[in-house]
Specification:
The protein has 491 residues and is an alpha/beta fold. It contains 14 helices and 18 strands. Strand 5 (155-158) and strand 6 form a beta hairpin.
Length: 491
């Protein structure tokens, strides 16, 4: 190749790289798990005043909004307790330090978080744990009204924790009732379960459900206990989904399973991995069946490994889930907590690992975004992850995906005008937020999302002048109206 040709090719590659850097999807899940169990994320410790709790919540929401996030996955029931005013379960010990003690002065943390998320045009997914009943049971003093004290026959002890017995219909009914209560009373955007179904296995310690199997095993008894356990989980997932949809048919039910469904050496349809435990064989979670039967509305596999890891390569597993999500939205759970300047794995010594994973997700059609574990790592700004997101991949805001369960009625377009350097528009009935678009010309081909807001105005700085702007109204299902009129700002 001639020197001139080489320079031309180099310039073209630089241009393409620059374009790729700037381009980001208009719709993409960008979520953060906010864990309350053991005060991992919020509140930072038990016993904070109500004012301090609220301040911590709004501060972390502001940081996530600044980072470009559009969804918060808030853990409201970590151990059969409540971060909301429940008629069935006691207030969480991780609020006051003692289970059963309400906030004083009274407020409802879930209601507060929902309102604060919606003010910022962010979704809130209510994260629950289905089976964990008492965390570190030997150290925890449960409230007399806690369900383990009311119905001790429903529970099994395994390792350091106490769990609902998944083999009982009573436990399935109880958990479904708890979910239904939250769906009915709170303006949440989804119900979210994590990866804890049957607990992760402890070497040399069998799960103590042999008596339950003998009594309730039915056609599975006596030699198909694994199939029976999977059937127990299948039943509770279907029942919970039916409960949610009977109350709010549009509401998504999402699951965040362990990253590996099955290893290929166990099942030819499994992934090319060598995971020590898997969903299907060890947690008895047949996630693919739930997707296939439409018992869940999205899946978020927790792929907390780096690109190129030998026994569990992020790239290979992400591709596998993309092929096996049965047309449902597939968001990838990413382990921001692994970022560490002294990590034994070189890949995690830089925030670039997370950036590479996000870019890989975008290249793989069928993957629809990310959920990050967990919030405190952004509070700590591990290895500059906040700046990396803001400058590399989340420079423009993104809408959530359209909700296919939602029966949309096309909203009216707002009417846009300019007043003293501020874009303003009218409220549209049925709109929950508005999207302002920016374009270098009066054409949708050149537009990008400028901001997503619940306000009826947006300020424009000097550097943002000499551009065209338009606005759309958006409903609960994230369906947009047609665009308003375009206005040019500046000369």
């Amino acid at each position: 190749m001639s020197k001139k040709g080489f320079i031309g090719l180099l310039m073209m590659l630089v241009a393409l790289g620059s374009m790729a850097k700037k381009k980001s999807p208009e719709r993409e899940m960008r979520a953060v798990w906010v864990a309350t169990v053991d005060n991992i994320d919020w509140p930072s410790k038990a016993g904070l005043s109500v004012e301090e709790q609220k301040k911590e919540m709004t501060t972390l929401l502001d940081q996530h909004k600044k980072n470009g996030m559009n969804t918060i996955v808030f853990q409201i029931r970590p151990a059969t307790d409540a971060f909301y005013q429940s008629p069935y379960e006691p207030w969480s010990q991780w609020l006051s330090g003692e289970q059963g003690i309400a906030p004083d002065p009274f407020y409802d943390p879930l209601q507060f978080a929902v309102e604060e998320c919606h003010k910022r045009a962010m979704e809130l997914h209510a994260w629950m744990n289905p089976y964990r009943a008492v965390f570190l049971y030997q150290e925890t003093e449960t409230d007399p009204e806690h369900i383990t004290n009311q119905h001790p026959e429903w529970f099994l002890t395994y390792g350091k924790h106490r769990y609902f017995n998944p083999g009982l219909q009573e436990t399935r009914d109880y958990v479904s009732k708890i979910v239904g209560d939250v769906v009915r009373r709170y303006d949440i955007d989804a119900i979210h379960f994590d990866d804890y179904f049957y607990p992760y296995k402890i070497a040399g310690e069998p799960f103590p459900d042999s008596l339950s199997f003998a009594q309730n095993g039915g056609e599975f008894y006596p030699n198909r206990i694994d199939d029976w356990r999977r059937d127990n989980v299948n039943r509770v997932i279907k029942q919970i989904n039916d409960t949610i949809k009977s109350i709010k048919p549009w509401m998504p039910f999402g699951i965040s399973p362990f990253g590996v469904w099955r290893n290929k050496d166990k099942d030819k349809s499994g992934s090319r991995t060598k995971a020590g435990q898997t969903n299907y064989d060890d947690l008895y979670a047949d996630v693919l069946l739930w997707l296939k039967n439409e018992w869940i509305d999205y899946v978020t596999p927790q792929i907390y490994w780096h690109i190129g890891k030998k026994v569990a390569d992020y790239r290979k597993i992400a591709k596998w889930w993309r092929r096996n999500s049965y047309g449902k939205p597939c968001y990838i759970g990413q382990g921001v907590y692994r970022l560490d300047s002294i990590s034994t794995a070189k890949a995690w010594r830089s925030a670039d690992q997370i950036i590479r994973q996000i870019k890989l997700n975008r290249r793989l059609k069928g993957l629809n975004g990310s959920m990050f574990f967990c919030s405190k790592n952004f509070t700590e700004n591990r290895l500059g992850i906040n700046e990396a997101l803001q400058t590399e991949v989340y420079r423009s805001p993104a809408l959530n995906l359209e909700n296919s369960n939602y029966q949309a009625t096309r909203l009216k377009a707002p009417k846009l005008q300019m007043k003293e350097g501020v874009l303003t528009w009218n409220a549209v009935e049925g709109a929950i937020y508005y999207v302002v678009y920016q374009s270098s010309g009066k054409s949708v081909k050149n537009d990008k999302v400028f901001c997503i807001t619940t306000l009826l105005e947006s300020g424009i700085s000097k550097q943002e002048e000499k551009m065209f702007y338009s606005v759309k109204s958006v409903d609960r299902g994230h369906f947009e109206s047609v665009a308003s009129n375009w206005i040019r700002v500046g000369k």
